[in-house]
Amino acid sequence: MLALVGACANAPQPPRDAFWQGRMSLTVHQTPVQHVAAAFELEGNATQGELSLFSPLGHASLVLRWSPGQAQWLQNGQTRSFASLSEMTKAATGTDLPLEALFDWLAGRDQAVPGWTLERSGSGGRWSARRSQPVPAVTLTVSPIP
Fold this sequence. Notes:
The protein is α+β, with helices and mostly antiparallel strands. The chain has three helices and nine strands, in the order αββββββααβββ.
């Protein structure tokens, strides 16, 4: 019984919700090339959270919210609903992104994702992830504010 209690005390705890902010740039290398660069705030986790992208003047120009079984894209007073964060991301960018890995990458954990290469640069937490397969190629660069 004591061993069981000790095992429960040492069991890994699920990650707590987190908050990040900074600048991000996403380029989807297709014809025509899609490129988005913005200040961002991200809070939550891959299951439930919110991503806000800000215009150069500091106004939220796009807000993505998700929870199990639903996702919402809020922009210019309009709301679009999706069944999942993955579905919403595909609609927004035209491609699939490694959403669960994004949270690990922001937290400093170098989770491997097939087809993606992660590169960290400098001590400020800046990183870049590049996808070569499947096409189209994708580049995501993030500069978090500590």
